[in-house]
Amino acid sequence: MQQDEAQAHVARRLQSLHDELTARRPAGYRLRDRLKSMLGREPPPPPRGLYIHGPPGRGKSMLMDLFFDTSQVRRRRRVHVHPFMQEVHAQLHQWRTEGGGKQEEEPLPRLARKIAQDTRLLCFDEFQVEAIADAMIVGRLFGALFDEGVVVVATSNTAPDDLYKDGLQRARFLPFIDILKQNVDILELSTETDYRRDRLKAVGVYHAPNDAHAREALADAFNRLTDGARPEAGEIVVQGRTIPVPEQARGVACFGFSELCENPLGSADYWAIACRFQTVIVSGIPEMKAEHRDAAKRFAVMIETFYEQKTKLVCSAAVPPDALYRDGDGSELFTRVASRLEEMQSEDYLAAPHRPANAHAA
User: Does the reported pTM lie above 0.70?
Assistant: First the structure.
């Protein structure tokens, strides 16, 4: 196998950061800082983080996951920016409610201290800022996080200067870009090979009928897309409700059709799934009849949502897309779903950047 020099360069930078973080023994470092403070000397600054950007499928997430999995930093967290910002807004709302709208201190520095107590290394996958509510506070929040010594590593399809491009009131967002550049090193990973697209093409994304061959293909797809990572169960919280995720690893999630379409899920649930995962594997899609109208409607909403977010779909189904729902209420509109499923198998769609969030988040 030929070495990818662009990946190797990023890997070396991540290794350097790994070594620097490992060398800073937390207990001794804090004691040393206290002694220097008593002597009137400033403690050393925390290591600079990394912001790795480039086209999709080049291995950014894979490299960051390897860095995160092997890190010796005990208080570390890997998260997508969208659920992270949801937590931020929820905490700020709670404090406003508890305080009757009044704050004893600035809420963002207070929140940064709270985050820093539990997290010294914060890793973001698919970093984007698209909602105006996020754009208006992200600069002050991250500035406070950096002041607290939090080290940030992020991957993104977007260069820092292009974040929130053409967004409302972007002038108020621009200081965040300066803060980011002051605290992290910017690396571009722009190798010619789109590994994710090639892997999806190799395993295929629509397998019919539902048989042993299809089950084997889905298992192979999960293994290839996660580089053999061990799947773990998880959950997504949407508007106070919990959606179980049976298996997940490195941006890939596995569900059965019944779990997604025979339970009372709605557009917000599918949107949260589509934003959280780059690829969703769905097994056991049946040929739907008139009595399956509710499941068929949910399936249509799910496919449209995945399509809009450019979430990749790998699935097994009883029949080809145009035969999934021929009879029953709404079947005449199902041609659009079949068309989406066909397009989602195309090379252009497989190469399209995932959209972890968009204006819908606002």
Answer: yes
